[in-house]
Each structure stands twice: as structure tokens, then as C-alpha cells.
Amino acid sequence: MSRSISLLSLTLLVGLLFVHAREPFKPTSVAPHVPASWKAGLATVVITPEKFIWMAGYAGRDKPAEGKWQDLFAKALILEDEAGKKQVIVTLDLIGVPQELRRRIAARLEEKHGVPSAGLFMNASHTHSGPELRRRPQPPTEEELKNPKVRDAWEYTQGLEQKINGAIDAAFADLRPARLTWNQARAGFAMNRRRDYSLPADHPNANKAPNPAGPVDQSVPALRIESPEGEARGVLFGYACHNTCLGAYHWCGDYAGYAQEYLQQNRPGFTAMFVTGCGADQNPYPRRSGVVPGVSDLELTQQHGRSLANAVEMAMTANPIGVTGPLRQAYEEVTISYEDTKRTPHQYPVQVIQFGETLTIVTLGSEVVVDYSLRLKKELAGPAAVWVAGYSNDYSGYIPSTRIQEEGGYEAGTGWARGIEKIIVDKAVELERGLK
Ligand SMILES: [Zn+2]
Q1: pLDDT tens for residues 341-385?
Q2: How far apart are CA 361 and CA 390, in angstroms?
Q3: Cα(275) to centroid of ligand 1, in Å?
Q4: pLDDT tens-digit map of 91-116
Q5: 7 C-alpha vs ligand 1 centroid, how far in Å?
Q6: Cα–Cα dist 172/40, whole Å
């Protein structure tokens, strides 16, 4: 008797397990109490070059690309608040955002969709395993086009513009009700790559880099987008670190590319978008083959990608904070000059995007060092959390802080006149105050 009962229960148990395993996945909201008061649209387009053209990032490259480890993507996110105000966010697995490209995309966005320039935020992952881009505003001359590097970069950048516009249009077509939550976690693989300039010249560590005691911003902010039913649709996340684990001749999104891939892996239809922070003086460590016995640079890249993806998972699920409107946005260009007064001064973009009292995103152009992020988080501290992005809307060299201009070194090398930190920070603070 008892044997047949236990046999019966075993059969039932196996049956139950079988039924359970086949049950379809039900999405669960991370914050069901948060009203789905937004609309969100998402779209992705592949931007991997069709040919093996010249790559961006390292001056020492002596040949074009010759393989592919990952596709490169342009991704568009549109957020619309209850009053119908929209913010367009475009992330790119590319070296930078050429200013002229951003200007052209902004002009079309305003004309076609009625969104002003302040409503466009473009950010590049700064992968050094992507194609070279046309950075100068004017088209190349006939003479310049004879150089295959210039010709490839020009042709690619023109095609890129069409693809990004396509992604933006597709994201508009995808606009539907959404719930937004946000929080931040931490990832530890970024280290300050400069030496410690405070040490006296005769100190044994005076010329040694990286500097484990140097300033870092290891926060991982993550804005999660889900359907009213609780299905995760996408995440916008950031990290302040050079996206340069790799120096090979293969197309790849580097650690940020793998972080995005891992986040999307088991979530069909989910879009993960990487935003580079103020990581100009930060590198990922350990870095390059041979440093860890038996681990290649590609494997290290994937490990850092996994670390970052795990931090994003943490930020998305641990105590998610509801994001409220209204959406407020401001964009201005400030003039920053070169030490060499014969060079034409640069129009440098500063942008502030505010989500009610919850979150303020500050975006700065080009390769910004970490001091800007740490300072702006202090200066703008208030009820809203502050997220500072670099590599946004422009790509024209390193943007050092006053400290780094005084110390010297690689990131001080773009030749800007002293005082650019004050000009840029003052503008960011002014724009943020103006939005309230
Ligand atoms: Zn760089």
C-alpha cells in the first residue's frame, strides 16, 4: 500500500515538475506600484561596416580591419512624458559622435518629428574596435579622397547618418505606454590610468601608472523601461571607463558591447543601451593578453562585460526607484579656446535632461576626465540623483580638468587654454538651475 502511494506521489511530482518547466515565462514588474505614466519607443540597427575598412582609436594601426567578434549597433530610445514632451537618446558602438553628424541628425529630428535640439542626446561607447569616422565638418576634397582611410571614413559616416535616422524613426513608431524605474550599483574594474602626480619626483612610484588611489567614478546608473504589464523592454546604463580592452583588428563593441549582449541574451526583444561616463582618464583592468596567465584580451573583455552586466542587473532589481516626469531639457554650446590663439575656438556642447525630481542627466561632449563627474555630482546634489555622461554630442579630443591641466600628462594634450573646467561646469550648473 505505502509503496504504491509513494509511487503515485513520485509520478505526481514528476508530472508537476514537467508542467512547471513548460509554463510560459510571465513578466514580473520590478516596481508594480509605480504608475506607467510614460511612453517609450526603442529600436536597434546594425552599423557594422560592410567592408573591412580602417579602424578608429589607435594611432599605431597599420592596416584595415580583418575580422569580426561582434556586430556594432546604433540604438534609439524615445521617452515621452505625460504632457507629450519627448527625449531622444541614441547610443552608438563607435569611437565618438562627430559634431557635424549630430547637428544634421538634430536638424532632421526637429523638422520631421518636432523635437528640438535639446531633446537629442547622442552618446558613443568609444570602442576602439570600430570604424574610423569623418570628424571634420566639411566634406573631403578630391585630393583627400585619394587616401583610402579618408574615403572609407567619409563613405561610412554618410551611410551611418541614414541608419541612425532609420533607428530614430523606428523608435517613434514603437512609442507605447511604459513604466520607468532607476537605481545605481557599482562595478570595480575601472582604475585611474594616470600616475600619482602628488608624489615627489624621487619617490619609487612617481612614474608608475595606473594609480589605484586616483579618482574614479565606479557607479553604474541604470534606467529600466518596462511595459505596464511588467515586461522588461530595455535599459539605459552607464559606466565611466575607456572602452579599450582590445587592440585587435576585429570589429567589436569591447566590454560595453559584451555587457549589452549579456543583458539582452535571455530577454527576447530587450534593448540594452550603453552610455559612456567621464572615463577619459580611466582604463579597464586587468588589461591585455598575458597579464593574467592563460587569459586572452578577448576573455578579459568578456569578463569586464559580465561584471558590468551584473552591476546593471543589480541596479535594475535592488530597490528600484520610480521615475516621474515632467521631462525638462536644455542644450547649449559654450566657446572653449585653444592655448594657441591662431586655432579656431570650439563650440562645446553641454546638455541637461531632467526627469522630475528623480533623476538629472548631464551630458558633456568629447573625452571628459572623471573630475567633471565627481564635481558635478557634488554641485548639483539635491533631491534628484545626478548621472554625468561624457562622449556625448561631440568628439573633439580630451577635456581635462584644471587639476590635470596643471599636472600635465596625456589627457592634458589637446591644447585647450586654462580655465575650460570653469566654463563647462558653470554652464552645466546654469542650465540645471534654469530648468527648475
Ligand atoms: Zn579615448
Answers
A1: 999 999 999 999 999 999 999 999 999 999 999 999 999 999 999
A2: 11
A3: 14
A4: 999 999 999 999 999 999 999 999 99
A5: 66
A6: 8
Q: 320 C-alpha vs ligand 1 centroid, how far in Å?
A: 32
The C-alpha atoms of residue 409 and residue 431 are separated, in whole angstroms, by: 31
How many angstroms separate the CA atoms of 365 and 310, rounded? 28
Q: Give the residue ranges of the chain where pLDDT is below 70.
A: 1-26
Alpha carbon of 2 to ligand 1 centroid (Å): 72
Residue closest to 239 by CA, chosen among 194, 192, 186, 193: 186
Q: Specify which residues 68 forms β-bridges with.
A: 251
Measured CA to CA, the distance from residue 45 to residue 47 in angstroms comes to: 6
C-alpha 66 to ligand 1 mean position (Å): 22
Rounded alpha-carbon distances, angstroms, from residue 6 to 12, 21, 236: 10, 22, 51
Cα(110) to ligand 1 centroid in Å equals: 31
Residue 4 has phi, psi (to 5 degrees) of: -70, -30
Helix (H, G, I), strand (E, B) or coil at 138: coil
- Helical (H) or strand (E) element with 106: helix 99-113
Grid-cell match 567619409, residue found: 154
SS3 content of the chain, % helix, strand, coil (to 5): 30, 25, 40
Question: How remote is the CA of residue 333 from the centroid of ligand 1, in Å?
Answer: 22
d(CA 195, CA 204): 12
Please, which residues have CB less than 5 A from ligand 1, an ion? Answer: 367
Rounded to the nearest whole angstrom, what is the distance from the C-alpha of residue 281 to the centroid of ligand 1?
8
pTM: 0.94
Instruction: Decide if 253 contacts 262 (C-beta within 8 A).
Output: no
Using alpha carbons only, what angle is made at residue 130 by residues 240 and 233, rounded to the nearest 5 degrees?
A: 60
| Ligand 1 geometric centre to CA of 330 (Å) | 26
